[in-house]
Amino acid sequence: MVGRHHRSPAPRHAVSHTVRHTASHTARRALAPLAAASVAVLAAAPLASAAPAAPAAPQQPADQPPCSDAADVCVDLGEQRAWLTDDGRATSGPMAITSGSDEDPTPTGEFTVQRKERHHVSREFGRAPMPYSVFFDDEGRALHSGSRAGSSHGCVRLDKDDAQDVFAALEPGDRVEIVR
Question: Membrane-spanning regions, if any (predicted)?
């Protein structure tokens, strides 16, 4: 094959350079409209005013109890949560609770711990166990351990560990606040 010129294949690095160059060129062409649009949006955007922004109103932290500083335990019926508190700050919680039904609601207001019974059994509701009961009103309502699957008859039901903590922390005369 004299006189015929055979072209040898391009070296491997040259092929990849060509592919890279073509891909880069294609990408730049595809992104050009986006760059132009970005510039147009920035040019049309109003400039920020020179006046300083007003400070945001302080918000209550999500886990901050909504009761007064005098409460020793705070119960929020709307959120179905409770906290042990000291000077308005949570020392334990939030704890999940179950409260009374529409027909037999848990009362709201300020109450005082009247007595505590570790192994109380309800005489009114079929000898239902109410372990770790902390009674807070004259109607026999208490914070106590029990199933949170359904509504109570006006009591505040807590999981067992939380009820034990509440029982250990509160004494007769301590303040219970229940809000909605």
Answer: none
- In whole angstroms, what is the distance from residue 134 CA to residue 118 CA? 8
* pTM score, whole prediction: 0.66
Residues forming the active site: 144, 155
Q: How many Å apart are CA 100 and CA 152, to the nearest integer?
A: 4
What is the distance between the terminal CA atoms of the chain, rounded to a whole angstrom?
A: 99
Four-residue CA torsion sign, 83, 85, 90, 93: negative
In whole angstroms, what is the distance from residue 145 CA to residue 69 CA?
A: 25
Q: Which residue, among 112, 164, 169, has the nearest Cα to 141 in the 3D structure?
A: 112
What is the phi-psi region of residue 54: left when phi exceeds 0, alpha when psi lies from -120 to 50, beta otherwise? beta
Measured distance CA(19)–CA(152) in Å, rounded: 73
Closest CA to 156 of 165, 167, 145: 145
Q: Using CA atoms, how far apart are residues 172 and 180, in angstroms rounded to an integer? A: 24
Q: Which residues contact 111 (CB under 8 A, 6 or more apart)?
A: 136, 137, 175, 176, 177, 178
State pLDDT tens for residues 51-110: 455 555 444 555 689 999 999 999 999 999 999 999 999 999 899 999 999 999 999 999
